Amino acid sequence: MIKICLDTNAFQDNWTASGEAFTFLAEFIKSGLAEVFISEVSILEHVNHYREEAPGIEAKLKSDLASCAKLIPAGTKGFTLPPFYSPPAFEKCFRERLTELGIQTLAIPQVPHAELVTRDLARRRPFVKTGKGYRDALTWLAFLGAVDLSTKQAIYVTNDINDHCNEQKSKLHPELTDEILSKNAKCKVLWFPTPKKLVDEFVKPLLKKTAEDKEKTEKILKRIQGGTYKGFALEDVVNEGLEDFETQEADGTFYAKDVPLEEPVHVTMVESPNEIEATDLYRLSNGSYVCQGTAEVVATVEGFVDKLDAFELSERGSVYVSTTNWNEQYSEVEVSNVPVRLTFSFQFEDGFSDISKFEVTGVESNQ
Question: Could you report the per-residue pLDDT of 238-255, keeping only the tens digit for each?
Fold first, then answer.
């Protein structure tokens, strides 16, 4: 059995565990190949983050809606803000979502304070010199308690690499690895920084390898790639899916003429998709399929440049300065007609034309 623990930060900016990565994790759980856990400590931390951040998000949305209302002709019905969960309601929703996905909750371990103090003073991970690591230690010990002789692989998912990883930031810290091996010497220990990395590099290949209908899946993929699949045309799926594109952070280096944009860079609008290609196809246990692919688009991107550069680029018509004084040094700018490569996925059932859950899963520079 493969056992996986998701740290609190695995749900960062993904309040209700949505998206492709968690779809595949749920499928992995249903396959019977793995158990996925979250500690009670992480649930409480996640709810607390919501309690702290939701009011600010709601306030910003209200401000944006108020600004939009000024653009609407008089007498036109305006936009309304959907109600936000109260923290208790959010906690209930989040716990129900975990149950829906099949993720199990690990109770807070009954560890004597003396044991935690000894671990802290010894600087044994995830404790560090500053003493930070109390909740991390409880989460780790809860997962350690789930590891037994039936565990063939133990996987910890966290982007807190400073406290949990080795010096090269490539593996779980040796102290943590040794603790798992002390429970099961034959267990293979792995670490991934995010659920997406876990899914892309571990879950998808394993699901693909064990698929019972691999031959059929490959035939459907070839038909989609060749434009002979009867259910839909890939180009239509992508064009319609991108109509609902939302602002997304992008990877890679982007330029305004010859001036590189400072991060973070966001793609705010995409159009003219071309070179659309289906790259992979996976069959889910419910009989539906997830198709993944790539496309080239032209996009509008937002980033930051030095104020002097922003002025010069604006004078030349190369950028639109959206915020002149972002801070003392930088201006925020928009650049149009930027070549961008995106990856996408969508779900469908064989023999039907309905497409569900179209999602842009990645955006990167193609300059």
Answer: 999 999 998 999 999 998
Neighbours of 126 (CB within 10 A): 25
Q: In the beta sheet, which residues pair with residue 165?
A: 172
Q: d(Cα 224, Cα 344) in Å, to the nearest integer?
A: 14
What dihedral angle (degrees, nearest 10) is formed by the CA atoms of 37, 40, 45, 47?
90
Reported as a pLDDT band with limits 50, 70 and 90, residue 117 is: low
Q: Which residues pair with 360 in a beta bridge?
A: 344
CA–CA separation, 31 vs 20, rounded Å? Answer: 17
Nearest of 106, 91, 174 to residue 140 by alpha carbon: 106
At 217, list the tokens: 């899946």
* 3 state SS of 123: coil
Alpha-carbon torsion 139, 142, 146, 149, what sign? positive
* 106 in Cβ contact with 142 (< 8 Å): yes
- Which has the higher per-residue pLDDT, 232 or 54? 232
b/e burial code for range 236-253 (CB count within 10 A of at least 16 → b): ebbeebbeebeeeebeee
Long-range Cβ contacts of 220-225 (<8 Å, 24+ apart): 220/281, 220/289, 220/350, 221/278, 221/280, 221/281, 221/291, 224/278, 224/281, 224/291, 225/277, 225/278
Q: How far apart are CA 213 and CA 210, in angstroms?
A: 9
| CA 231/CA 237 separation, integer angstroms | 11
Helices 20-30, 87-101: axis angle to 10 degrees equals: 50
Reported as half-sphere exposure (CB side, CA atoms, 13 A), residue 64 has a value of 7
Distance between CA atoms of 91 and 50, rounded to whole angstroms?
Answer: 9
Distances in whole angstroms, Cα of residue 119 to Cα of each of 70, 114, 126, 135, 175: 58, 9, 9, 13, 11
Angle at 351 (CA atoms; ends 350, 353), nearest 5 degrees: 95
CA atoms within a 13 Å half-sphere pointing along the CA-CB vector of 189: 22
Residue 91: φ, ψ to 5°: -60, -45
Write the CA distances from 347 to 270, 277, 287, 353, integer angstroms: 21, 16, 11, 11
